[in-house]
Amino acid sequence: MVTGSHGRYQWLVDQRDGIGRLIERCPEVLLGRYLVIASFDSGPLHPNAEETAAGWCFENQLTYTPRLDSLSLLPYEEYDEWYVFTSPTKITSCDTFINFGGFTLTNPEESLAALDPTWDRVGAEMLADEQMRQQGQFWSQLERFGAESYIADVDNFIFATANSDLYTCVAAAFRSA
Fold first, then answer.
1. How many Cα neighbours within 13 Å face the side chain of 151?
2. Does 124 map to a domain?
3. The pTM is what?
4. 58-82 pLDDT, tens per residue?
5. Is 80 within 8 Å of 35 (Cβ atoms)?
6. What CA–CA distance (Å, rounded) separates 166 from 28?
7. Is residue 8 part of a domain?
8. pLDDT by residue (tens digit) across 77-118?
9. Which H/E stretch holds residue 76?
């Protein structure tokens, strides 16, 4: 697990576990909150009849949940990207990041430092530059949305939050994996 911070957000990246562990060990990250699903299994989530009856809606390629009092309907797979809010929030447009191979919040320059000398350094530097650009775009969007938390499950599990109590819970849950 790798951890860090950016502005008011603390974050962690883990390669072993994902959203299932988060829901099992730290349901308070989601309970009593509102979820905007930007990606489900690499694309938009169209709510089914049961979800629609429960108050879920689909607008601008995003799925919005009502206040989450239960997590039983919550679908998750790989390549999911969620924004968590403490009050109902509408987003007019949203870039998704999980479909960029290897999206992470870790510092790409650290990967360059550990690069095997026989590997393509120019290609690795281009990838690091692209990852830095994506991270800048990600942080700008997250701050603009004002989400309490961000959750993504892709090549890595990514959790970022402005709530230090939630961060402490999730970090402990993923350390004890």
1. 29
2. no
3. 0.91
4. 999 999 999 999 998 899 988 999 9
5. no
6. 8
7. yes
8. 889 999 999 999 999 999 999 887 778 898 877 666 666 767
9. none
CA–CA dist 118, 42 (Å, integer) = 33
Please give the residue range of the domain that contains residue 94: 2-101+147-175
Residues 6+ apart with CB under 8 A from 82: 35, 36, 37, 38, 150, 151, 152
Q: Where are the alpha helices (DSSP H) in the chain?
A: 19-25, 49-53, 108-113, 121-145, 164-175
Whether 127 is in a domain gets the answer no
| 60 domain-assigned | yes
| Three-class DSSP category at 129 | helix
Ramachandran angles phi, psi of 43, nearest 5°: -155, -175
Long-range CB contacts (within 8 A, 24+) of 61-66: 61/94, 62/36, 62/37, 62/38, 62/91, 62/94, 63/36, 63/37, 64/34, 64/35, 64/36, 64/37, 64/88, 64/90, 65/34, 65/35, 65/36, 65/37, 66/34
Please tell me the total count of domains within the chain. 1
